[in-house]
Amino acid sequence: MQIHWIKINKIIEETPEVKTYLLDCPEGFTWEEGSHTHFALEGFNAGEKPNRSLIRHMSISTLPNEKSIGITTRIREQCSEFKTILRNLNIGDEVAVFKTHSNVPLKRENKNVYLLSSGVGLATFRPLVLDYLERADNVNQVHSLNIDSSKDFLFTSIFESAPDKKFTSQFVYNRNDYYEEVKHLSTDKDGLFYVVGSDEFLVQNIALLREQGIKPEQIILDKHEQQLPEFLS
Asked: Which keywords label this protein (predicted)?
């Protein structure tokens, strides 16, 4: 397993609680849209066993052509040891990335694509949307629906409806509006539904989509293949 130790080259405050850490891109390191990586802090591999409290699964919120690995995360006032350390890191400090993999690349199957996310889950979809806007081949259209109760919506300059490119974006901040909209979107019985958020959020969305007649193979989750049955069966 190759571990890349890389420097933070920029920290962007997206909202009062959300930061994006842009990391140097190691030579030859590449990834595809919808990728996640193991993101680790100094000391995680200092002992005989890895210190799991210093490792997190994080989505990469950038594309390779942006020349930086982007990690976007919410850091609340009261937060874990991992987030506390992360909050105190500065430009030039080193972090580690390893085991990078994509469960949710953009499927180009001549269908409508629906991106359903909660809060900072939108970071997973940012590269998919950029990829689609750069090259729309074999995708009919893309619709993003994000719920964020904080009302501090993320990436609004990218998640902006562009009718000429067949891209629509919606932000809502309460569950009733969100689930009504999911019901409306699921009238498309042939669409592909990507869902990113907490496990509870996934379970609720899957139940609603299945009730509306959407098949498991139309639902795409940011989970390893062996984890899918526990959500979709």
From this structure: Oxidoreductase
Q: Supply the pTM of this predicted model.
A: 0.94
For residue 146, the SS3 value is strand
- Say yes or no: do domains 4-102 and 111-232 share a fold: no
Q: What is the pLDDT along the chain (233 residues), one digit of tens a residue?
A: 899 999 999 999 999 999 999 999 998 899 999 999 999 999 999 988 989 999 999 999 999 999 999 999 999 989 899 999 999 999 999 999 999 999 999 999 999 999 999 999 999 999 999 999 999 999 999 999 999 999 999 999 999 999 999 999 999 999 999 999 999 999 999 999 999 999 999 999 999 999 999 999 999 999 888 888 889 88
Residue type at 203 in one-letter notation: V
Fold of 111-232: Rossmann fold (3.40.50)
φ/ψ region of 170 (left if φ > 0, alpha if ψ in -120 to 50, else beta) reads beta
One CATH from 2.40.30.10, 3.40.50.720, 3.20.20.240, 2.40.128.110 for 4-102 = 2.40.30.10
On whether the CB atoms of residues 221 and 195 are closer than 8 A, the answer is yes
Distance CA(174)–CA(115), nearest Å, equals 17
